[in-house]
Structure prediction request, 362 residues.
Amino acid sequence: MPKAAEIDIVSVSKIYGATTAVHAISLKIPAGSYCCFLGPSGCGKTSTLRMIAGHESISSGDLRLGHVVVTDFPPARRNTAMMFQSYALFPHLDLVDNVAFSLKMKGVDKETRRAKALAMLRLMQMEAYAGRRPAQLSGGQQQRVALARALITEPEALLLDEPLSALDPFLKIRMRAELKKLQKTLGITFVHVTHSQEEAMALADLIVVMNDGRIEQAAAPRIVFEQPATAFVARFMGDHNVLSGRVSAIRDGIVEMEAAGGPRFAVRDIAQEIGAPIDIGIRTDRVRLEPASEKTLGFQAVVSNIEYRGASVKLTVSGAGSDDFTVIVSDADYFNKTVSVGDAVSLSWALEDVVPLGRLSA
Ligand SMILES: Nc1ncnc2c1ncn2[C@@H]1O[C@H](COP(=O)(O)OP(=O)(O)OP(=O)(O)O)[C@@H](O)[C@H]1O
Prediction:
C-alpha cells in the first residue's frame, strides 16, 4: 500500500500578472486525510491545487510534501497524481494502455505495466472492460478509469479537480461514495476541489473554505457547519441567517445587538464594546414558529414565501431588518399549524443557537 503524505502549505501566493489569485495562505493537510477545498468560482481553489500538483509555479512561499520541500519540483517528482475534471483519457487507446500510460513514460517494461494496469482496473471494478476505448464507457466508468490511471504511480496524495462535476446527479452521489471508500481503502491523502457544500460535507475530514484568494476557515465539516468562523462561511455553507448590527448592551457575558431597522438579537461569549459592529448567525432549522418566552429570543415577522421540500418546509419572512430571514420547519410541525404568505408570525430561538461570526465588517 502506498504511504500518505502530509501537505504543508506555508504562506503560498499565486500571482498572475496583475491578479493575486492566492494571498499567502498557510495550511497543514494531515497525511491520510480527505481534504476538500470549497469556495465560489474564482476564489483560488484550482490555483492552489495546481500549485500542489506542480502544474502551476508558486509565486512565493513554500510547499512541503511529507518531509520534502517540493516548491520547485516538477510534477513527476512530487509523488502526487492529479485527476482532471474532463478525465483527459486518450480516445485512441484501450483502457489498459490508458491506465499504463505513465508507466510507459517511465520506461517500465510492457508485461509489468500491463499487469499493474489490470490490477488497478480490478481495484476500480473495471477489469471486464479492459479492451474497450473510453468512448465505449459511461461517464462514471470513465471516471473510474481516470482514477485507475492517476493511482497507478502509487502517489502519496491524489489531487482531484472538480471530479464529480461532469456526472448526472444520481451518478454524482454514487461516485462520491466510491471516492470516499477508495480514499479509506488506500489511506493516501486526497485533496478535492469543489464548489458544492454538500459534496464537501459528505466527503471531507477537513474542509477548507476559500474566498477571494484567502482561507476563511479550515476545520472538520461539523465545526464549519456549527461554528462558521465568518459571515462569508455562514452564508456560503447555507442554513444560517446572517444578521449584521451594532452592540447595544452587554449584560452577564451576553451581548445584545441592534440589527439595522430591527429588534434586538443576543449572542454569548464574545468580547465586544458598545457600538462595535457585529455579525451573528442563527441556524434556520433552530428557529421555531412560537412567540419568544423568557428563555428564548425572537421577533415578529411576515411570511413572504413558502417552499415545500418534502421532509421540511422552508419559510422566508421579512422583518428584523432582513427580507430573507429563513425558517426551516419539519413537515409535521408545518402541517400541524399551517401559515400562508402574508401572515404575521412570531419566531423564536434559543440563545445557544446564535453563533458570533468573526472578521467583522465595519
Ligand atoms: N492562467 C491565469 N492567468 C491569469 N489569471 C488567472 C489564471 N488562472 C486563474 N486566474 C485568475 O485567478 C483567480 C483564481 O482562479 P482559480 O481558477 O484558482 O479559481 P477557482 O476557485 O478554482 O475557480 P473555478 O471554480 O471557477 O475554477 C481568478 O480570478 C482567475 O481569473
